[in-house]
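Re: weekly structure request thread

Next one in the queue (514 aa):
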Amino acid sequence: MAICLNQNRNQLCFIFGFVLLLSPIDLPQGHIMENSYKVKVCPLNKIEWKKASQRLNCTDDMENPVNRYHCLPVHNLTALVEFCYNQIRPRVVKGLCMVYVQGIKTINNYNCSNFEEGCPDTNYFSDESYKFSGCIQIDPTRRCYLAEPSCRPDTHNYNDNRVPVAWFISSAAVIIVILIAIAATCTWKRRGCHKRTENTNEEELKKLTKLTDKKTGMYISEILPCNILLISNLGWRQLSLKVFEKDIVLSKIDGEQVTEVTHISRVTSEILWIENKYRFMKIDHSGRILFYHNINVYWGCSSFTVDENGDVFYIKENTKVIKMSPTGENPTQLIKINGQSNILNICSTRLGGEILLRVSVEKLNKHWTYITRYKKSGEHLFQFEYQNYEKLHTSPWFLSVNINGDICVSDQLESEVGAFDEEGNRLFTYKGLPPHDFSPTGICNDFLGHVLVCNGSNPSVHMLDMKGNFIAIIIQDIEDVKDPWGLCADDNGKLFIGQKNFGMIKVFQYLKNN
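Done, posted below.
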């Protein structure tokens, strides 16, 4: 409890200390919030933006998309913060503003279609928010954008030191009641999220399919419980007829034809990073192999990953993770596990480029499977038990991490797709449509947060929302996809599918930006 003395009226005011800590208007300007700094206003033109960038020592080199200056609202709209963003600046589609998510130190989008003015009317980079004033002007007390019709400037004077004691007491009481209500609601919703059914029956899935058809395949996600971020696909729609783009036929390596693509880690406008049982490769969009590295690991499937910065991480000798540059230079051991353990799979996250491993450990004559997470520096963050078996099963499955941090697993042995939080709590289980004909292989997440997964037994690609609800089968065998394994979506609505018994990647346009 804090005690304040008002010298003008000689009154003592008793205010709960934790209420002051939670109140956003009580933080001093320049307060550090996870390498970001609270400010009263963001720069509104290019000159002031550049001055702020120099003040924080951010990157001004136009050729370098990393460490660029940003000034954005916090995701709950309680403050404006400035920071040097240590990831590649994203390209933002029109109709979206950007916000800073403190808990995971990343940026996310905000649907501004209801703004009266200042909403972006063209695509832009996230470090160009000064071009659209509506995106960086907020009322932190009302937690809204000034450009929103429902947000009106507050006429109260919050700097008046002569506010009576009763005002403080009543305000504190109201805040405490609200906090208790929010905590109770979040606990109830989180419990409901974690108890989401794992036995979705076929009848319910058919209803979902009909619902999707009635909506012409369009999908707008909502604000979800369990701390899931708001993701909007404003301007994007699912195509009712997928547009076949092209086949990428791989060239030969030392006179030998590449005959399979079991994993696709990353796709850019210029290159793809792919894998088969024997090597991982960097290719261009014509199929020409630019670089390859031979591997010899237990699993031979999703044995490498490429992060947002282009750094390559791969499994070596089943117990090590090696980091190297995109050109194969400077290989460095990052992780080494000990004991009766094998690293089976690896993937990297969009949020901070962290590394996720699937590790098999032998103990008590059983094989226990864990999912572990590491920082890019090799520092261990957490792990949780996935499953344990009497003997080691060699049924390939894949990992991916969604934009909200959910860990998605494609489990061919159990014929299901599951999602977990960082504590290993199961968030959802998807058994396929129909459930008895589902053998999941490659899995990925697109920039809208969809879960995309290959079905090997009935060649197709299924699309789910972030809660695991079925949306549609977006690619089927009729598109000449025979044995889908590798899967990756780019940020332009294109899907890249690698096949187990074909040295060819098929490319489809499955989303369209209106």
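Residues 1-33, 154-166, 189-234 have pLDDT under 50 and may be disordered. Residues 14-145 form one domain.
Next request, please.
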